[in-house]
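Try this one yourself first.
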């Protein structure tokens, strides 16, 4: 029999669950018996782009036929030897094809077809043996009968050695048992566990009942394909709605409105902070002066209120100020300091990232009227007691940097202890960690070490348990691991569910993005956190792809070939060393680190022409420009200046200097013959530890060389011999002790030195040729110097970086000169502030910033500044972390601005460059989840996030496909469907490429000249287990490949990645964070019910029951159709297959610009589907309805019936709890405080049958009439009772514990 499924990029291929894996060993372990009993029961192949499953009778007589379940769960019955059963590729009916017939036509749909080769020959496959387990071969995909308990065997078809993965096997058997429990009523086919009889009759509509009863006892029903389709759509979760809502304080009415529009994520806005109880002393003063806005005063109230509470360990509770860049955190801190000053707390510590920000602190304090509060810069003070008579700092604000916090004097006095002494043991003043993301690496990833800064931040909090701690940063927790220093939030430790931070971290990482998003909401609910951001209304974001220009393309190609050749040269040089070799690991670490740095520099240089064009265009439009980058190239520039002098012919090429340094300092050379001493002489073998005395003069002079007889070990000085033995002596040496003639050591020494010299000179010559090649390469200049030069030089461009000097064009116009950035009037410490002022005053209209200016510096179109031109922010190079990216974006988008900026993010069209975007995108997603309660809060770079769990799976799949160890999940780029020759050619090119960058190792048949694999060889070599999932390494190394193969390889990887994401969505396993539930009407059904109260905070957990109507009326559908009438294939479609006498309808509208064609799908019962449908899938399953009356009648019928009935019909085994395709349904959402009950809910959901119901989903809804926003966990209808029971048990246990 035969069944097939479409294999296409849009519909996705049907994949076997790989329970078997290839065994690398080519021999069995000694003493292990190879068991038998494995036979092929199903043959698998490809036929015209479709995956075919074939089984036929034949083979040895002792094998009996049987029943099996194949593609899509369709049961297949072994046919009689005279015929076979085939599933039609068109209407999918089952046909009996007599023996000997190769070409046939379906009697129903009239589709001409050809019997695949798998069914033309006898003996290929056999029936299922129901006493064994059926598993697919990991190599040829043939389904095998495997005896229980057999773990290692050889596939009878392809002869590949296999082993059973017991973990996957257990999961597979568990899923089969769940399908048996479901039955057909819920749209899932039963699993047949007992064999049928050969020759059983079968009609063209389904399977006979004798086959289907078996051990499961179910009768077979026809599958409703539309129900499965809709179930997949609903499992893919909701849609993404508006992310932000306008913000204003909900429970306070003091202060003036903020000068700029402020927004909050819709998720955070759905929860309310506690009632304010703190009496603000500075409220009246601020209302009169208007120095602080209403939201800044709200922050001071909640921070002060939080500081009145103590945690379970008696330390004072802390507060997290997470407002976005530019909202005005600095002035809020100043207001908080002034409030505490009024309360008599006249000492405060203010930590930040740069000492020059002290001037901003002074300005903010003056703005709020806190002129009496002095600001003392700690870096200007000695290490003595600060309150002593000599220093005289009795009160005020000590302003220090995180670097100062870990500093110490030459005598061992530390700044930290100095601060603790100044504050005193009972210090209850403010301890402000401004830009606190600086301390984020307190808890590093596996293999890393905690930073001294993170440890010091935690230590000073421990030494000041009563201090009023404020964590302040727009990027304070880019991922949960980085929250380790926030000990005063009370999220872990005594009195919580998490005894230490590691358990808190483990819980968040286990439960995914949804848990991260709930952390932010819980913190706001408890009054320990606020997070608002400037509205990006008016700001423009665009990601511009910059193709490589011809000149840069040639440079890049030459560089790729050179690095490949250099790697071969280094391997040859290492192999040529006969004496003690240097550490190869260290050499290759340096090689790959410089490789990454080199090509990152090349990518940045490739974007310089585009950045300059954008800057000049902006200047012509009366705008000003801010260009952001990370690498200044200072180290390479200073090396070149030290080497060649301060006057150079041209700007320094960073890539060239990097290569020169790598080869000059680390090329492995043999031992220098000049250094060959006595330890290299064949006859001089004495140990340095031995006490030697000359046999002639009896002197023990260790400074003189000894000669030792190889026979009697007698030692003498060469000068004591008669005649004395010198370097040029040709006479033989006779031992004075035994009289024996020893070897002619002088001849041997000269021969030895000659060999060493020749080898050394040859290696030096090869090294010299490599250096000459590097000098001859055409490589780009340092981008920073290049940009400044092309945009008018330092007189027209303000530079805010951390470098000390720069190269400028000589006044003569020829050559460049190195000069210091500071001048007589401006110190190096103040140069960035001076350059900033030049820009803000309109004396310079272009600014270039690096990380040194990415925290606390304001470059927006400030209404108070002379330069109010609109900013065009060009990101030439994204920083490696989202924290730094957000800081850089926030330099030009801040409060009190005359206009919002334009952001232009530049990327080359090189696939490997996405390595850097990938890292930032990953951080931006988790950063938005933690600090803003919504992972979509930041600028969207999620399309570039490949460094994820799905990225790692995609990489492993990609590698296995390239090594031809597994079938590719998708068709490779540039390979027509079914063209195996093209696919093999692509795989061969990719293997060559991966070999040149060190991903494939130990390959045979390698061309020693260029390191590539000979085309005639089969796949060889290996990919290390550690590399299989290392996306970072893959993208790093991919940068060093020629652009063409780099892009094709990356496209293949991304296609696999997208396919895995689609599969995860279909299986309900994709963690999409907060999703919106959309419906035409959403209303609360009764009052919310409190189902749990936290014993610690008293915050409630509430169950909301909502009635939703997701339907789309005929009038609305018809209106949509009329609005898109220009599409030829747009219209109402009817399903080709009937189910229970009914067909189903949908509206398909082509998405403009899609290639291949893709359609938005609307259904009567559920409105717009979350996924698009390809034109191929649409035509195969649906027929366009030409009659308007017929379309209206069918649509209306679907709409009406779906009000109280699911798609499985009135006899659905799930009953009223089934929501598949139901238009009107109840939705249960658990809101309020979630983290304390998360584990209880998770346990209840784990017992659900549907995979999508097992997953914790954080959802957001807004009621239609009242506009009330609700965010919480979506509880499936079938799980409500179990969840409520679990919460009740948890509440009772909590009460018992508190009483006990």
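Now uncover the answer:
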């Amino acid at each position: 029999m035969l069944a097939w499924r479409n294999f296409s990029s849009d519909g996705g291929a049907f994949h076997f669950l790989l329970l078997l894996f290839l065994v690398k060993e080519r021999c069995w372990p000694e003493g292990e018996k190879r068991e038998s009993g494995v036979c092929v029961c199903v043959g698998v192949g490809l036929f015209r782009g479709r995956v075919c499953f074939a089984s036929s009778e034949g083979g040895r007589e002792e094998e009996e036929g049987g029943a099996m379940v194949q593609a899509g769960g369709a049961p297949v019955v072994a046919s009689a030897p005279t015929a076979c059963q085939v599933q039609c590729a068109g209407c999918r009916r089952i046909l009996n094809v007599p023996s000997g017939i190769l070409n046939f036509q379906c009697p129903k749909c009239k589709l001409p077809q050809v019997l695949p080769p798998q069914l033309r020959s006898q003996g290929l496959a056999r029936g299922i043996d129901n006493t064994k387990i059926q598993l697919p071969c990991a190599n040829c995909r043939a389904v095998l009968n495997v005896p229980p308990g057999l773990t290692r065997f050889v596939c009878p078809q392809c002869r590949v050695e296999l082993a059973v993965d017991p973990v996957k096997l257990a999961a597979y058997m568990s899923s089969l048992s769940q399908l048996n429990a479901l039955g057909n009523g819920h749209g899932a086919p039963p699993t047949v566990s007992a064999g049928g009889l050969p020759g059983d009759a079968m009609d063209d509509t389904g399977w006979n009942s004798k086959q289907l009863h078996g051990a499961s006892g179910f009768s077979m029903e026809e599958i409703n394909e539309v129900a499965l389709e809709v179930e997949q759509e609903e499992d893919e979760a909701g849609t993404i709605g508006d992310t932000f809502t306008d913000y204003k304080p909900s429970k306070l009415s003091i202060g003036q409105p903020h000068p700029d529009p402020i927004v909050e994520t819709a998720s955070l806005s759905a929860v309310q902070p506690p009632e304010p109880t703190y009496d603000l002393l500075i409220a009246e003063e601020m209302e009169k002066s208007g120095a602080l806005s209403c939201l800044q005063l709200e922050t001071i109230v909640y921070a002060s209120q939080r500081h009145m509470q103590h945690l379970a360990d008696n330390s004072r509770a802390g507060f997290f100020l997470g407002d976005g860049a530019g909202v005005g955190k600095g002035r809020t801190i100043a207001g908080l300091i002034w409030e505490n000053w009024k309360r008599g707390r006249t000492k405060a510590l203010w930590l930040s990232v740069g000492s020059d920000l002290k001037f901003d602190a002074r300005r903010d304090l003056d703005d709020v009227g806190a002129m009496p509060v002095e600001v003392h810069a700690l870096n200007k003070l000695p290490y003595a007691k600060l309150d002593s008579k000599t220093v005289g700092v009795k009160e005020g604000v000590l302003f220090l940097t995180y670097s100062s916090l870990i500093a110490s004097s030459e005598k061992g006095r530390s700044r930290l202890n100095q601060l603790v002494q100044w504050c005193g043991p009972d210090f209850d003043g403010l301890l402000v960690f401004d830009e606190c993301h600086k301390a984020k690496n307190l808890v590093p990833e596996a293999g890393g070490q905690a930073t001294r800064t993170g440890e010091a931040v935690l230590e000073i909090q421990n030494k000041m348990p009563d201090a009023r701690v404020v964590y302040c940063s727009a990027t304070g927790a880019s991922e949960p691991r980085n929250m380790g220093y926030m000990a005063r939030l009370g999220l872990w430790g005594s009195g919580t569910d998490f005894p230490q931070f590691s358990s808190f971290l483990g819980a968040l990482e286990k439960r995914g993005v949804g848990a991260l998003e709930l952390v932010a909401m819980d913190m706001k609910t408890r009054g320990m956190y606020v997070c608002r951001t400037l509205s990006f209304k008016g700001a423009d974001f665009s990601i511009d792809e910059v193709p490589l220009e011809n000149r840069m393309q040639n440079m890049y190609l030459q560089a790729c070939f050179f690095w490949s050749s250099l790697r071969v040269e280094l391997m040859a040089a290492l192999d040529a060393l006969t004496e003690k070799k240097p550490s190869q690991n260290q050499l290759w670490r340096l090689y790959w680190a410089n490789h990454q740095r080199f090509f990152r520099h090349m990518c940045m240089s490739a974007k310089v022409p585009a950045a300059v064009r954008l800057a000049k265009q902006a200047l012509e439009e009366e705008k000003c420009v801010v260009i952001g980058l990370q690498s200044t190239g200072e180290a390479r520039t200073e090396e070149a200046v030290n080497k060649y002098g301060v006057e150079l012919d041209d700007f320094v090429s960073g890539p060239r200097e990097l290569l020169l340094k790598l080869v000059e300092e680390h090329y492995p050379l043999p031992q220098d013959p000049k250094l060959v001493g006595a330890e290299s002489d064949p006859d001089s073998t004495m140990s340095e530890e031995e006490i030697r005395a000359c046999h002639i003069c009896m002197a023990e002079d260790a400074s003189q060389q000894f000669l030792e007889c190889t026979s009697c070990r007698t030692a003498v000085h060469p000068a004591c011999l008669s005649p004395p033995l010198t370097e040029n002596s040709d006479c033989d040496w006779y031992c004075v002790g035994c009289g024996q003639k020893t070897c002619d050591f002088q001849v041997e020494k000269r021969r030895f030195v000659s060999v060493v010299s020749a080898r050394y000179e040859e290696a030096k010559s090869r090294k010299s040729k490599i250096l000459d090649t590097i000098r001859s390469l055409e490589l780009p200049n340092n981008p920073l110097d290049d940009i400044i030069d092309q945009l008018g030089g330092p007189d027209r461009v303000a530079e805010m970086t951390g470098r000390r000097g720069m190269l400028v064009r000589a006044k003569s116009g020829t050559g460049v000169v190195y000069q210091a950035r500071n001048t007589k009037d401006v110190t190096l410490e103040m140069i960035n502030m001076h350059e900033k002022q030049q820009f803000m005053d309109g004396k310079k209209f272009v600014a270039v910033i690096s990380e040194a200016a990415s925290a606390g510096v304001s470059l927006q179109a400030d209404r108070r500044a002379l330069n109010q031109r609109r900013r065009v922010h060009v990101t030439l190079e994204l920083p490696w972390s989202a924290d730094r990216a957000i800081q850089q974006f926030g330099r030009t988008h801040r409060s009190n601005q005359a206009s919002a900026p334009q952001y232009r993010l530049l990327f080359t069209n090189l696939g490997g460059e996405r390595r850097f975007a990938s890292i930032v995108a990953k951080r931006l997603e988790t950063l938005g989840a933690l600090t803003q309660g919504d992972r979509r809060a930041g600028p969207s770079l999620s399309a570039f996030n490949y460094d994820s769990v799905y990225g790692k799976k995609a990489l492993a799949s990609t590698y296995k496909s390239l090594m031809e160890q597994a079938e590719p999940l998708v068709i490779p780029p540039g390979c027509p469907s079914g063209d195996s020759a093209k696919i093999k050619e692509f795989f061969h090119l990719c293997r060559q490429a991966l070999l040149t960058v060190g991903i494939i190792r130990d390959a045979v048949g390698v061309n020693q000249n260029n390191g590539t694999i000979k085309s005639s060889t089969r796949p060889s070599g290996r990919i290390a287990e550690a590399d299989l999932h290392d996306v970072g390494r893959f993208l790093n190394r991919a940068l060093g490949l020629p652009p063409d193969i780099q892009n094709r390889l990356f496209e293949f990887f991304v296609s696999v990645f997208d396919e895995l994401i689609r599969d995860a969505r279909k299986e309900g396993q994709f963690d999409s964070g907060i999703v919106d539930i959309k419906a035409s009407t959403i209303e609360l059904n009764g009052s919310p019910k409190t189902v749990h109260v936290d014993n610690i905070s008293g915050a409630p957990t509430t169950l909301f029951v909502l009635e939703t109507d997701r339907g789309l009326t005929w009038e609305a559908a018809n209106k949509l159709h009329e609005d898109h009438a220009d599409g030829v294939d747009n219209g109402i479609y009817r399903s080709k297959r009937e189910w229970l006498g009914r067909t189903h309808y949908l509206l398909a509208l082509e998405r403009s610009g899609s290639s291949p064609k893709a359609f938005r799908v609307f259904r009567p019962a559920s409105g717009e589907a979350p996924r698009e449908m390809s034109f191929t899938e649409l035509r195969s399953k649906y027929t366009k309805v030409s009659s308007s009356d017929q379309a209206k009648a069918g649509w209306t019928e679907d709409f009406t019936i779906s009000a109280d009935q699911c798609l499985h019909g009135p006899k659905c085994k799930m009953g009223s709890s089934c929501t598949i395709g139901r238009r009107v349904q109840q939705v249960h959402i658990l809101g309020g405080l979630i983290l304390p009950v998360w584990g209880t809910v998770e346990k209840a959901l784990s017992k659900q049958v549907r995979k999508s119901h097992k997953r914790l989903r954080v959802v957001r809804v807004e009621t239609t009439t009242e506009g009330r926003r609700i965010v919480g966990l979506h509880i499936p209808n079938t799980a409500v009772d179990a969840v409520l029971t679990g919460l009740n048990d948890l509440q009772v246990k909590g009460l018992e514990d508190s009483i006990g």
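Discussion: The chain has six domains: 2-223, 244-533, 540-667+778-909, 946-1066, 1078-1111+1214-1300, 1116-1201. The domain at 244-533 is CATH 3.40.50.10810 (Rossmann fold).
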